[in-house]
């Protein structure tokens, strides 16, 4: 390939001391750099778990800070350089979700998708699969080639690719915490995704992608607490979805105006969608809790809740309720709902303390606790090698003032986490059975007395809630 023209590379390089990285914005587990992804020193080596990005397509889009209509060979050289840097930043088990066109007609027909995949493989990236995204934009077509003639018609597919690549190992040896539910997994592992594109006018960026795209990639290809990177951060869409799904995020964006747009959009979105936990009037979280409070002590699956809150929110506000599933999970994380199984929750006023001071382990701290415990349950020793799902939980419960600290955290398998979570319920049950036995004895109901004594004997046999004293009559 010929050398890349100086302006293509020089225009997107920034002079700065690599020890003073140009952080434009940071918020908890989010960092946005106003810099160029052509600078390999901007990020640390092997620091990223998942890269999600949509690079310039070289189709003449009017970006602020870089030219998007270069010679095709120059464009491929540019692509090689930034993808090589991503390879350096990626961990051995990192994945790479690359949103690119299948092909292009503007400026001459080119097999963009195939060419970029070939370059990525030459760099060292390994190919896993391709997702076809049908964004349904065929109505916007303006180029037909030869109209109603076989002379030179253009065939344009209204789809884009999301190419899934990985660095060295596809299967992650260390099993982290997944937050994807069954319905999402079943739908998203189908390689044809159909959802609308995003409006550049609404977002204020010439080429935004919809939130649904990074959201699916984040949940399908990364664990909670992983680090997500978007080297062309643009309007901050990947940043928003990484944060809302409890991942760390590193974004790189060349244009300062787009950085400012990202920051503003991020803060507004987080305030709107994640700030309602305070239960302010008409918040989305409040509406979800309203549904659960109307249906206490019942195991309820996501679809039933979602159907009601989406319709009710639109009726009350005239607006669309974005991602109610996330709201349900947030309420669980904050201690407002009990998780019965994957995608099934319960509101039980007797067992769930609705408190605002509950502390949860942030993703990075969870990771530290898992690493300290060698990714094994501290009770039975089962872990990643046995394929057991692991949880991080408090040693001293939150309800008794337990804090989310490294010292108060422990790794439990699903079985022992379940036993711990239900300890309070077994305590209440034992008290209830003792009280029922007293009533049965007063009315001399012999069969009921026999049944209750047998149940209470099981408590004694296995030393469950031994501090609640009961002794069988001799």
TrEMBL record:
Instruction: Tell me yes or no: is DNA-binding among this UniProt entry's keywords.
Output: yes
Q: What keywords would UniProt list here?
A: DNA-binding, Methyltransferase, Restriction system, S-adenosyl-L-methionine, Transferase
What EC number(s) does this enzyme carry?
2.1.1.-
Q: Which Gene3D superfamilies does the record cross-reference, listed alphabetically? A: 1.10.30.50, Vaccinia Virus protein VP39
Q: Which SMART domains match?
A: HNHc (SM00507)
Q: Which reaction does it catalyse?
A: a 2'-deoxycytidine in DNA + S-adenosyl-L-methionine = an N(4)-methyl-2'-deoxycytidine in DNA + S-adenosyl-L-homocysteine + H(+)
Pfam families assigned: HNH, N6_N4_Mtase
Domain (HNH nuclease) spans 364-418
Q: Which SUPFAM superfamilies match?
A: S-adenosyl-L-methionine-dependent methyltransferases
Q: Which PROSITE patterns match?
A: N4_MTASE
Protein family according to the UniProt entry? Belongs to the N(4)/N(6)-methyltransferase family. N(4) subfamily.
Any idea what this protein is called? Methyltransferase
User: What lineage is this protein's organism placed in?
Assistant: Bacteria, Pseudomonadati, Spirochaetota, Spirochaetia, Brachyspirales
């Amino acid at each position: 390939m010929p050398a890349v023209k100086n302006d293509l590379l020089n225009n997107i390089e920034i002079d700065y001391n690599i020890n003073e990285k140009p952080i434009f914005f940071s918020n908890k587990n989010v960092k946005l750099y106003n810099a160029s992804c052509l600078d390999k020193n901007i990020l640390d080596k092997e620091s990223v778990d998942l890269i999600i990005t949509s690079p310039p397509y070289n189709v003449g889009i009017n970006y602020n800070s870089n030219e998007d209509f270069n010679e095709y060979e120059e464009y491929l050289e540019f692509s090689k350089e930034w993808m090589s840097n991503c390879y350096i930043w990626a961990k051995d088990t990192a994945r790479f979700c690359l949103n690119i066109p299948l092909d292009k007609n503007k400026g001459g027909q080119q097999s963009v998708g195939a060419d970029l995949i070939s370059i990525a493989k030459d760099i060292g990236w390994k190919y896993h699969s391709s997702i076809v995204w049908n964004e349904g934009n065929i109505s916007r077509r303006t180029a037909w080639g030869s109209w109603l003639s076989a002379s030179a018609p253009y065939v344009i597919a209204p789809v884009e690719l999301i190419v899934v690549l990985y660095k060295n190992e596809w299967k992650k040896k260390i099993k982290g915490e997944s937050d994807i539910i069954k319905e999402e997994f079943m739908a998203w592992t189908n390689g044809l995704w159909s959802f609308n594109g995003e409006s550049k006018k609404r977002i204020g960026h010439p080429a935004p992608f919809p939130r649904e795209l990074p959201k699916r990639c984040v949940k399908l290809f990364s664990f909670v607490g992983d680090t997500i990177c978007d080297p062309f951060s643009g309007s901050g869409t990947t940043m928003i979805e990484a944060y809302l799904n409890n991942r760390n995020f590193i974004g790189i964006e060349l244009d300062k105006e787009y950085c400012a747009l990202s920051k503003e959009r991020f803060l507004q979105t987080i305030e709107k969608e994640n700030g309602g936990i305070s239960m302010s009037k008409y918040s989305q979280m409040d509406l979800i809790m309203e549904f659960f409070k109307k249906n206490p002590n019942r195991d309820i699956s996501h679809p039933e809740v979602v159907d009601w809150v989406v319709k009710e929110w639109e009726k009350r506000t005239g607006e669309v309720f974005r991602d109610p599933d996330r709201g349900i999970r947030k309420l669980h994380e904050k201690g407002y709902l009990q998780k019965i199984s994957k995608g099934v929750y319960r509101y039980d006023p007797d067992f769930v303390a609705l408190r605002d001071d509950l502390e949860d382990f942030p993703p990075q701290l969870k990771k530290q606790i898992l690493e300290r415990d060698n990714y094994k349950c501290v009770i039975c020793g089962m872990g990643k090698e046995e394929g057991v799902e692991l949880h991080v939980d408090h040693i001293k419960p939150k309800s008794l003032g337990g804090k989310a600290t490294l010292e108060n955290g422990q790794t439990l398998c699903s079985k022992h986490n379940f036993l711990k979570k239900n300890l309070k319920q077994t305590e209440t049950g034992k008290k209830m059975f003792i009280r029922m036995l007293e009533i049965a004895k007063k009315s001399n109901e012999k069969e009921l007395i026999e049944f209750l004594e047998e149940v209470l004997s099981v408590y004694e046999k296995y030393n469950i809630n031994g501090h609640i004293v009961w002794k069988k009559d001799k």
